[in-house]
Structure prediction request, 167 residues.
Amino acid sequence: YDRRRRRDRSGVRVIENEVKLGVPPAFRLPALDALGDGITAVARPDVVLHATYYDTADLRLTRAGSSLRHRSNDGWTVKLPTEAQHDGALRRDEIRVEGGAGSPPAAALDLVRAFARSAPVAAVSRLRTLRRTVDLFDEHGERVAEIDDDEVSVLDGRRVGARFREI
Prediction:
């Protein structure tokens, strides 16, 4: 998981290189300090994230490799596909958009309009995620990767409709 940040007029834009791996519930990350010379693993405190994903009724954004969400810890995020990947990674522009919870801000809707076209965009799923993050640093103290261990609950109203785990 690699994020390169740059700022543009819409806010913070990140190029995200991401590989998602499904794992069983009992999976435990191995010790990561042994990955290579000079690599140091530093665990962050666990966090619980609440996210609402928005899409068209026929999931046009998802099918295009894009997403629009509001998450409790970082507000509105739009992810847009950038180029085809052949190494198993998903490479997308990640753009933060200012705005409060509720309806997606106009700036976020403008970014996904090419995928949604004339279809209305509405909430399609709500997730609660327990995230355990480990940052990997090189010998110069530069963060070279972020590993997120997510236990995800898909919410159906107040009840859990499904659960999955991914790294």
